[in-house]
Amino acid sequence: MARETAFTMDTSSIKFGAGVTREVGQDMLRLDSKRVMVVTDPRLSSSPAVETAMSALRDAGIDAVLYDKSRVEPTDQSFRDAIDFAVEGRFDGFVAIGGGSAIDTAKAANLYSTYPADFLEYVNPPIGSGTPVPGPLKPLIAIPTTAGTGSETTGTAIFDLVEMHAKTGIAHRALRPSLGIIDPDNTRTMPQMVAACSALDVLSHAVESLTAISFDQREAPQSPAYRPAYQGSNPISDIWAAKAIEMMAANIEEAVFNPENDDARSAMLLAAAYAGIGFGNAGVHLPHGMSYPVSGMVRDYVPEGYPPDKPIIPHGMSVILNAPAVFRFTAIASPERHKWASSLLGYPLDTDDPEEIGEGLAQATIDIMKRVQMPNGLKAVGFTEADVDELVQGTLPQERVTKLSPRPAGEDDLRNLFLDAMTYW
Ligand SMILES: [Fe+2]
Description:
The protein is an alpha/beta fold.
């Protein structure tokens, strides 16, 4: 096998600061868009963030049309609905306001309205054909209202393919927003559990990109067009991931329990973007790959502060519930990197023994989970040992990310990982 010898560093432009949502009209004009689809979800439709953005666009003379039907946890159908709206509307630009779901929906609407194709054409293999995006897309400005996904910096759009019960996505650097407008005013009203889950998503993005297989251990692509956005850890993504871990660890409790603390909230939002730049180029691995069936197989769990009638295991929660078990398993493949991650989290380890390092990083993660009141493992959100086979089957198609694990994980390994994730303390 010929090994990869190159890596790339791609990211969106970033504008950061309290109140910068007001500049979106000028930004869109600079990108030369005159008729814009504004994608958000129904809950945010009359939020200050959306109102500010709509009036800024209209003040700049832009014909802005609101589409407020993006779905939290999008599906192929909700993507298709947004795509149909985009095709009919003949837009020359997009603005997305919301969490990762709204931003991902706008990426899909932009892609399929610009380069129409069968829905599975650009979807990641083995589920879709994974055809590379043919060329540049229309300008997309992303305005996050949660501090977790980093979707404003990445070329990934995740959705549920309902008939296959599978979470999958589209990943290509051309999907990246032209600009991420990161405005701490937009995250002031995040409920506590939403803030905790998104902060732990940041933790996992950053530790996963730091511990992912190195870019030069991957097989070389058949041509540069097939070089994946998720390339494995590399010298540039390391810098962003490492800094993100430090910022997240220093601010998580304040940002979750005291959202009035502007400095802590701003730092978490910036940490989310830093982690996004890191994992947008390096990738994530097992905690994310295993999280998709965890979220997808929810039965009746409803976290505190979420609507009581809709069972959900939020993305950041489903990721972090797997993370300690994974770090115990992967430490042996790159003990120095796992030790580094633990120390960046504020838990320096005084050992060179790979097993002790794995346990140390797992315990550091568990301690942070406890500090922000996460449930104690998969059992606490409704799973039992009887679910493990199905969880494993749901992880196998997530090859795009699981293959970036520094230690390959086969079916038996995944089974043991899910068993280890059942209860932590
Ligand atoms: Fe994530």
